[in-house]
């Protein structure tokens, strides 16, 4: 996709900043309910304090999910603030998954600084993740008359997210994973929660199921586009931009979309890649950790030669198109539709 803005009437940074500004006070208030030291550990994870407990102004992420929740409320004709409890709940579930994911993957860096388990230990990472998950459910259930209806969507999305995490881990120990299996995993791991973010504000705003369901379809495809871009960045992303190590997904033996698409392709590059990854699967973690940059670079080059990168970039566009098409199936204010389409475009052209 071109980086030219196809939605000149929409300022995506302003949508993201509105999501942060409206959600941040409620998110801080929610985290403040946690018992010590979990409140401090969570504050470090969110970037509000540094490892010594001093106030910090850390990059808190893209804020796509809060922006979606607020636009979702507006799609139902409600004020954007109506979506704030949904935005907070989704952010808490998302960050629960990040805390556990960092520990499971052994990632030592997130957003250019040490992860929670590295600073505060694995036990605190697990406990705080669990606490954020419980807090999310408490907040959404207390979100007024529509709270229980919204909570059902959040619960389903959370279960699917965990399903996706389990599938992702299992795939690391398999020699072969099909493209269909990978898409199912990524639809669970990433698509489910973005689908929830895109629909939960509408539910809180009193929308009928038809609108909420269409927004959920939009969010599901947006999540798959988001993850496809993430998969490309996980192999070829610039560490200075992504905050992760070079070849990060290859180091973790992830069966991401570029990898499975390359393995499924015909030709000598796919055959050489298959032989290398089959041999890699038999190596111990210690042997794998001893790989030098050239070995990971060789694997990345084979993935690209076999067409895995090009296929994944095209898949991101296909999912983007499906997301935007879903917006045309139900009535909503034109400005809201344009904002949701602009956010989808932002997800596909991002660099981190």
Automatic annotation (TrEMBL):
Position of the signal peptide: none
Gene3D superfamilies for the chain: Farnesyl Diphosphate Synthase
Database matches in CDD domains: Trans_IPPS_HT
InterPro entries named among the record's database cross-references: Isoprenoid_synthase_dom_sf (IPR008949), Polyprenyl_synt (IPR000092), Polyprenyl_synt_CS (IPR033749)
This protein's record includes keyword Transferase: yes
Alphabetical UniProt keywords: Magnesium, Metal-binding, Transferase
SUPFAM superfamilies given in the database record: Terpenoid synthases
Family under the similarity heading: Belongs to the FPP/GGPP synthase family.
Name of this chain's protein: Polyprenyl synthetase family protein
């Amino acid at each position: 996709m071109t980086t030219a803005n196809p939605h000149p009437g929409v300022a995506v940074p302003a949508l993201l900043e509105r999501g942060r500004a409206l959600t941040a006070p409620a998110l801080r208030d929610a985290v403040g309910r946690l018992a010590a030291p979990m409140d401090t550990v969570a504050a470090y994870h969110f970037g509000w304090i540094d490892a010594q407990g001093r106030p910090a102004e850390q990059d808190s992420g893209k804020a796509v999910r809060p922006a979606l929740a607020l636009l979702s409320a507006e799609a139902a004709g409600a004020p954007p603030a109506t979506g704030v409890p949904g935005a907070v709940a989704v952010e808490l579930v998302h960050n629960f998954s990040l805390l556990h994911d960092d520990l499971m993957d052994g990632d030592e860096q997130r957003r250019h600084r040490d992860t929670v388990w590295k600073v505060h230990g694995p036990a605190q990472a697990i406990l705080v993740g669990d606490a954020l998950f419980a807090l999310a459910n408490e907040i959404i259930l207390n979100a007024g008359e529509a709270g229980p209806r919204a909570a059902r969507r959040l619960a389903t999305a959370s279960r699917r997210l965990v399903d996706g995490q389990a599938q992702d881990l299992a795939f690391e120990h398999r020699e072969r994973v099909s493209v269909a299996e990978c898409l199912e995993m990524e639809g669970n791991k990433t698509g489910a929660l973005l689908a929830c973010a895109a629909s939960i504000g509408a539910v809180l705003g009193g929308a009928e199921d038809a609108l909420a369901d269409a927004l959920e379809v939009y969010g599901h495809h947006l999540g798959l586009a988001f993850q496809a871009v993430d998969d490309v960045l996980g192999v070829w992303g610039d560490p200075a931009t992504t905050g992760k190590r070079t070849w990060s997904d290859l180091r973790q033996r992830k069966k991401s979309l570029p990898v499975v698409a390359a393995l499924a392709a015909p030709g000598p590059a796919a055959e050489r890649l298959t032989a290398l990854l089959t041999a890699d699967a038999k190596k111990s973690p210690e042997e794998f950790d001893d790989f030098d940059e050239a070995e990971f670079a060789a694997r990345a080059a084979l993935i690209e030669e076999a067409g895995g990168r090009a296929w994944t970039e095209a898949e991101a566009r296909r999912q983007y198109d499906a997301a935007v098409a879903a917006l045309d199936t139900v009535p909503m204010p034109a400005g809201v539709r344009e904002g949701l389409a602009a956010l989808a475009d932002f997800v596909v052209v991002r660099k981190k």
